[in-house]
Amino acid sequence: MRPFLLEGGSVSQMPVAEGKSVQQTVELLTRKLEMLGAEKQGTFCVDCETYHTAASTLGSQGQAGKLMYVMHNSEYPLSCFALFENGPCLVADTNFDVLMVKLKGFFQSAKASKIETRGTRYQYCDFLVKVGTVTMGPSARGISVEVEYGPCVVASDCWSLLLEFLQSFLGSHTPGAPTVFGNRHDAVYSPADTMVQYMELFNKIRKQQQVPVAGIR
Amino acid sequence: MADVLSVGVNLEAFAQAISAIQALRSSVSRVFDCLKDGMRNKETLEGREKAFIAHFQDNLHSVNRDLNELERLSNLVGKPSENHPLHNSGLLSLDPVQDKTPLYSQLLQAYKWSNKLQYHAGLASGLLNQQSLKRSANQMGVSAKRRPKAQPTTLVLPPQYVDDVISRIDRMFPEMSIHLSRPNGTSAMLLVTLGKVLKVIVVMRSLFIDRTIVKGYNENVYAEDGKLDIWSKSNYQVFQKVTDHATTALLHYQLPQMPDVVVRSFMTWLRSYIKLFQAPCQRCGKFLQDGLPPTWRDFRTLEAFHDTCRQ
């Protein structure tokens, strides 16, 4: 398995300049994929919820509370992923959600923090492409593009090949190599690597939202 | 009567033979009638027995006579079908209702067709034998008929020798690991793992490679019973393509006198797939064509090409 995420921002900036909405851009992308010969294969969904470390458990040393992200991916319907930023990624059964309710005293869910991306799955030869609309609350915030090339298990091996594929439907708006596989050169790609990329993408989109808010103040 | 009937006019002999058969049948039935009726009423028991036996004898004599007559006639009738080139099937031409049952003309056509087929097959076999794709030393055809049971010597190598050749090849290529097993008797099966790119199942017969299946590094190569699964193909199009090319390579690398060189050449060729996802096509310079990377590797230069870019 070998997914890659495009930076949602860099993709959505293109249509904004041309005065197009997120929805129109998604349609443009999927039309290009279909022209390429990709076949529709159902839908997908990735969601992410943020948890704070509860104030009562923080020591008096003034250490900052860490953020924990609990994520689900429809590609792995029986799993639940719990990630810390720059930290370990835990892959658990879906029962983990129930456990989080019990751990209320230690981890509190941040209000209105749920962010998710939904869209269509496309298959083109051995490529799996997922174009999704990232939504936070009621509004669409950006577009995520995930490309997975199943036959190759080492991310850095097939990066040039993926880049060529991305250029065929994204044009010049292709991203740089994801940071995930810069540090581990020949490690076998795992589902957790995908989730880390989605977490980074979601965080980036969240920050984009905060910047204009601060400017208004 | 024999003078009248010549062999040429045996239609008359047929008619006579048929009436002779009828006579024979009636005389035989008379024998059984007499047996069925039993002894007739006569004054004395002795008279009864005598009359019955005489009657029975008469009947048997007439059967004998009719049978002799039939045998004599059957010699006159002869065996006309033997002269016909199609033997008994030639009699079909005598059928008067040609329109309803055109069996004879159909038969002739089928015969001509099968003759032609045999002729063309003979020509084709001659041509194919000149450019044989057989990888074993003995040629099929004439020699196979002469000694059908004889095995070419390269097929009866001791397993120990095969093990040695394979382990030497295994040591030659550090990025390639070869696992040898013998799940079904003496024939070896190899599981070749090439880096983190692909896995190849190689089915051997002595030192000849019979079959190869290429699968992804993360694909399951074992069947449910724990043995190597040599039948199912890869789920990925790219590895199905590589499997096809590997089968082509099996036919390309052949040197019946030195099977170990063949295995080594094949493995050297296979090793070039370590850059399957990293090498662009040497002709068009691109990575992808119709969604597939360059899956072909030149047999001599080992350069990467797309299937449609190779010459």
Name the features.
heterodimer, A: 217 residues, alpha+beta, Hypothetical Protein Pfu-838710-001, 9-stranded antiparallel β-sheet, 6 helices, 35% helix, disordered C terminus, B: 311 residues, 4-stranded antiparallel β-sheet, 7 helices, 6 strands, 44% helix, 11% strand, elongated, disordered N terminus
Overview in brief:
The complex is a heterodimer of chains A (217) and B (311). With 217 residues, chain A is of the alpha+beta class. Chain A is built from 6 helices and 9 strands; from the N terminus they run βααββββαββββααα.
How would you explain this protein's 3D organization?
The complex is a heterodimer of chains A (217) and B (311). Chain A has one domain: Hypothetical Protein Pfu-838710-001. Chain A has 217 residues and is α+β, with helices and mostly antiparallel strands. Chain A is built from six helices and nine strands; from the N terminus they run βααββββαββββααα. In chain A, β8 and β9 (139-149) form a beta hairpin. Chain A starts with a strand and ends with a helix. In chain A, strands 1, 2, 3, 4, 5, 6, 7, 8 and 9 form a nine-stranded antiparallel sheet that branches. Chain B is an alpha+beta fold and 311 residues long. Among the domains of chain B are: 10-36 and 50-76; 157-273, no CATH class. Helices cover 44% and strands 11% of the residues of chain B. Chain B is built from seven helices and six strands; from the N terminus they run αααααββββααββ. In chain B, β3 and β4 form a beta hairpin. In chain B, α1 (10-37) runs antiparallel to α2 and α5 (159-172) packs parallel to α7. Chain A binds chain B through residues 1, 37, 124-127, 149-154, 157-158, 160-161, 164-165, 168, 186, 188, and chain B through 196-197, 216-218, 235-239, 277-278, 280, 286-288, 290-293.
